Amino acid sequence: MKTAERYLMRAVAGGFVVAAAVLLPLFSFIDLIEQLDDTGQGNYHSAQAFAYVGLILPRRLIELGPFIALLGTTVALGGLASHRELTALRSVGVSPGGIALAALKAGVLLILLLAAIDQLVASPLQQHAFGMRATALSGDSNAESGSGAALWARRGDRLLRVGALRLGRIPADIEIFHFNAEGHLVRYIHADYAEIHHRAPWRLNTVLVKAFMAGTPVTTRHASMVWQTFLTPAQIGLLEKPAESLSPVQLYGYVQYLRSTGQSSAVYAVMLWQKLGLPLTAAAMILLAVPFSIGAPRGASIGSRIALGAIAGLGVYLADQIIVNMGLLLDLSPPLIALGPGAVLLAVALAALGKSAARR
User: Fold this and answer.
1) pTM value > 0.85
2) SS3 for 189?
3) Which of 27, 254, 347, 350 is the least crowded, having the fewest Cβ atoms under 10 Å away?
4) By C-alpha distance, which of 113, 109, 129 is closest to 28?
């Protein structure tokens, strides 16, 4: 039995590789077409478009994870069924439950790989890609992202430096310089972090202010102060990484920050629970693929099985999007919104697997 289980695991893992090799280029090509439409705006050219698509590849891999699990399992078990290998395995005592368990064990490896990529690779690369793209599209010579700081910007006699972004979205280590007509520094402000509100002044926190009068600095400290920003919406966009680019750890910290400051956190909480619920969704997809293989007619081709799996995956995706948007509109619990579809899908998959086993 152990030999049969290892054989099934290798086959399913190989199916994951095949599914990824098909889906990733397809969706990357779609991303590239979208990016090429924006070339010519600001300083954004085709080289940046190709670089952007390359940098977000790990994120696309994670987003496609459940569908890779579904199609990969379908491809693997469908191929075994077409060559009567599943029949041979059943004849030596491997039950449908055993086949599903072996597929799930291969799925665990996929889930662990995707989780590591999300935390360590996908998030920093996507955030870098977003900053590169936003900087190029803005075409603003008075703003620069990178070079050891999150943002440098100048407008008239004022210079702003944002040293870092906490949790991918909170400006931190902020320095503001005011110069007079002769180019001499007359006021310096340093803030630990800032709360950004669109079309509204920033709220600087833990602030140090130095005013230079006759060459003598006068220092004052404030718990917080309001500062009227001179940044354009495009420049502010450089400081707000897309929510989907945040790692689970960053999302958790940002949700806690929003709650502590009295801001709405529902969208980010749902996204966090969706990331945490990835194992549930992937497991449900794998179990859903098993009845497609062992329950399909003997003459069914692998192509028909893949088509059925693709339709099921598309249906799950559309249902998930509808449920998430409706849940946010109705202000339902984020865990319920994010995990509910996966739990229902898992129940459906287990029921289908049970019926398939009963027929055999």
Assistant:
1) no
2) strand
3) 347
4) 129
